Amino acid sequence: MYTREETIRRMNGLGRAGAPFFFVISHDLEHNLLFERKDGGQGRSAAFSLPLGERGGLRDCPPLPEQIRFDPVPCPLSRYAAAFSSVRAHLLRGDSYLLNLCVATPVKTNLTLPHLFRFARAPYRMLLGPDASVSGVHGRACACFSPEPFVRVRGREIATFPMKGTADAATPEARRWLEEDEKENRESATIVDLMRNDLSMVASRVRVKRYRYISPVETRGGTILQCSSEICGALPENWPSRLGEIMMALLPAGSVTGAPKEATCRAIAEAEDMERGFYTGIFGFFNGRDLDSAVAIRFMEEDGANLVYKSGGGITVMSRMEEEYREAIAKVYVPFDL
């Protein structure tokens, strides 16, 4: 694993050389993994799938069980309420305007992490472990099947796609609610403003290309709608030689922290009773010319003999505790094509 400073130096060097590599950066930015494409068998249990490239496709993964069992065991409402009360106090003091509060949910399931990597329908997928050299921050194997890109670079254009807002498509008014709800609109506006400012630290001509577009996501429990925005800008010509600096300047990802970032991260650390590890970090691939990366959400990890799903949602002063609790639990799903 590499520290933040080691990661910056290593990514800068690989970018300058035009050497393809995969990477994983933890939420705290201090426990990071880099895999050069030439590594061959090193870290055999690290697998990635992104639009720009794949590594370790697990073609020998066992088939899915005929009858899938996937039963979340949500944390008690009282436990979530305590965390919610803590973050609400920070919001009322003005320490934060928007804060992403996360919880860990044990799941009783007959699925394995390789199943999740191999069969989950998502544009960005990652598997780490059980090899101790590549497993998670706490030595735990984990899998991620993320729908949310972090930054994408094509040529010199950099774009980021913060995702804010989720609704159950089975509800007839779901789309209209996502479009018109004041709390959802304020969350999007806050994060878009934050990410526009973040991109302005590394790019020029930053602009909001698409604001609050809605996409369907299929799950075993039905279709959900998710709201995203697209912000883009122009990188300097020598951006690959500064790749590590650029990525770290944009982290941690605003959509899974909040605004303002520094004070919000302190409030998160005070409220949450779990270590995020690689959850809400990022993972990605640089192919020597362009880059894909994703926010590590829709995330499961081993905890002893159990699997735990980490999920969360944005909290503002307008949030209602019971609604936010239900949203965090509703995000405990696996998008299989069945």
Automatic annotation (TrEMBL):
InterPro entries: ADC_synthase (IPR005801), Anth_synth_I-like (IPR019999), Chorismate_C (IPR015890). Pfam families: Chorismate_bind. Residues 79-331 form the Chorismate-utilising enzyme C-terminal domain. It comes from the Bacteria. This is Aminodeoxychorismate synthase component I.
